[in-house]
Amino acid sequence: MPCCVQYYAAFEVDGVQVDASTVETPSQSTFIEAFGSGPWTHFSEIAVGDKRVAVVAPELRLATELCRDRKDRAEIIAHWMRDHGCDAPLLRNAMEARGIDAATQSSVMATIRERGELEVRD
């Protein structure tokens, strides 16, 4: 993707859509998904068969979707975080690094805390 200074690929693996992209732009922030060291510093591991695969932290991904105004995707991620927990300071830092306005940040944090029993790590 020349406009984005990024390489992107999409595959189907055993019937599952898998997307991959590179990080090609330097940044001083470690809280941005697609720039600098953020995805290498903050990541999660998921099971793929008998292997573990590193993926970008959902907190960084949510901030990216908010920044790109992809509300449908952001809502799915926020609800997943509500159901499975999240690193609240990382999410706050990621939203701040992406310039997400205070009202949206408050709304997202309220969404992920909706159920009450959620593990939100502060």
UniProtKB/TrEMBL annotation:
Judging by the UniProt lineage, the source's domain of life is Bacteria
* InterPro entries, A to Z: NT_sf (IPR043519)
Protein name in the entry: Uncharacterized protein
Q: Which organism is it from?
A: Rhodomicrobium vannielii (strain ATCC 17100 / DSM 162 / LMG 4299 / NCIMB 10020 / ATH 3.1.1)
